[in-house]
Amino acid sequence: MYETTGIGVEAAGLGKSYDDFWALRDVDLHVPAGSVLGLLGHNGAGKTTAIKILTTLASPTTGTARVAGYDVKTQGREVRSRIGVASQAATVDGLLTGRANLTLVGRLYGLSKTDARTRADELLERLDLVDAADKLVQAYSGGMRRRLDLAASIVARPAVLFLDEPTTGLDPRSRGDLWALLRELVDGGTTIVLTTQYLEEADRLADDIVVLDHGRVVAHGTPTDLKARVGGERAEVTVSGVADLAPAARALDGFADAPAVTDAEALTVTVPLRGGTRLMDIVRALDAGGVDAVDVARREATLDDVFLSLTTTSKPEAIAA
């Protein structure tokens, strides 16, 4: 398929402004061919803007970017012929069958009729869509449409594949099958740029991660490096009601290396633990504080912890020039 040497995606000083507001600012990327970059951040952090620039759908205000060796501003046609894109919204045609959709995409990429049909059949089987291959896509379920859209993005075996929330709407089995397929593509030399809200997905797939917040890079490293950056073990306490969240946070404060993170929906309080902390001492502190704890657990740091510690949800003013 593709050589695993060289650079799949590179960017320097990449920025995009809309009047006085910078949606993206001073972003540098270096993604070796045959690797996976996880691009993480809250909604509005700049992920979609970055993807639009790298796929030639938007022009950068500042900086440069090259995809599969071609400049996104001056060599857009060459870039587009070498990439695949699966956006959050399915782009397949509901008035065509699944097989016809994939065959059409293959023909648009320059495959012969025979090769396009062969590739369509291969992907329909790989993504468990054979039984629905000759049904109109408008009759597909949301998960089936998502799988077909993903198949369409790899019909031409792209050198660089951009996936924006690729497993949204997929059941656990389909998600696992997709992960296996993506790993096969990477082993064959394809470069993948992935945005996802499933941080387990980034942890499993990404060789490198860039975290964006308010348009800027706030962290960059391997999943292991980033988890080490925010510390090791966590204590996670689940309480019976919202009224117990604040008392639980106060009780945990004496064992914490950083402020507690509370989740009112999940009714949890999580803190990074100081070395030598015993679970028994935490339970006693909660009891002394009158906290009705449903569960007390000790665990290693995850990418969720990285994400919560490095990003904010407040709406920024315009990024200073």
From TrEMBL:
Q: How does it sit in the membrane?
A: Peripheral membrane protein
Kindly list the GO molecular function terms attached to this UniProt entry: ATP binding; ATP hydrolysis activity
Per the record, the domain of life is Bacteria
Q: Which residues form the ABC transporter domain?
A: 9-239
UniProtKB keywords: Antibiotic resistance, ATP-binding, Cell membrane, Hydrolase, Membrane, Nucleotide-binding, Translocase, Transport
Q: Name one GO biological process term.
A: daunorubicin transport
The UniProt entry, under InterPro entries, shows: AAA+_ATPase, ABC_transporter-like_ATP-bd, ABC_transporter-like_CS, ABC_transporter_ATP-binding, DrrA, P-loop_NTPase
Q: What is its main location?
A: membrane
Subcellular location, in the record's words? Cell membrane
The Enzyme Commission number assigned here is 3.6.3.-
NCBIfam families according to UniProt: drrA
Q: What is the similarity comment for this entry?
A: Belongs to the ABC transporter superfamily. Drug exporter-1 (DrugE1) (TC 3.A.1.105) family.
Q: What is this protein called?
A: Daunorubicin/doxorubicin resistance ATP-binding protein DrrA
Which gene holds the coding sequence for this protein?
A: drrA_4
